[in-house]
Description:
The chain has 173 residues and is an alpha+beta fold. It is built from 7 helices and 4 strands; from the N terminus they run βααββαααααβ. A 4-stranded antiparallel β-sheet has the order 2-3-1-4. α2 packs antiparallel against α3 (80-96) and α3 crosses α7. The longest helix is centred in the middle third of the chain and has 18 residues, at 101-118. It is globular. It starts with 6 loop residues before the first strand and ends with a strand.
Amino acid sequence: QKKTTDQAQLMLGFPGFPHEATENAAVTVLNTILGGSMSSRLFIAIRERRGLAYMVKSGDENFRDTGYVYVRAGLEAKNINKAMRVVEAEINRFKERLVSKSELHVAKTHLRGALTLSLEDSSVQANWYAREAIFYDKIKTPDERLVEIDRVTADDIQKVAKQVFRMSEMRMA
């Protein structure tokens, strides 16, 4: 008889920023380092080193008046508490220590490459400019967005991590 496992989805949410917030570029870079790729801190710590999840990522959503930052993981239910401890430890690293120059460079390079490749699709381009026109006072080109990302410093990331990752305001599902 085949053994089945209890699959679960873990979702952690933190208050984020609205569309127009200047902090969003730093949040984008932070999320790339935290859980935005297969070389991210969470992917390596939770999936590769410990085998606690089959999927783990972080990201953010922005709205007119608010936003949120999230960490998601697909895992066996028995691993939720272990994964939570690793997530909390990684979040605390952002608040306690500056990210390395190497991590910062790799994250910015990843973001530049991902955006450039995605914009080869005309529907992605149309979506980019529609979103800019609907949600922002000024339409920014992808190149202008990349300049904002390039300006993000390790200090910016630590500052925004302290603003966002307040465990007392975390919500979990």
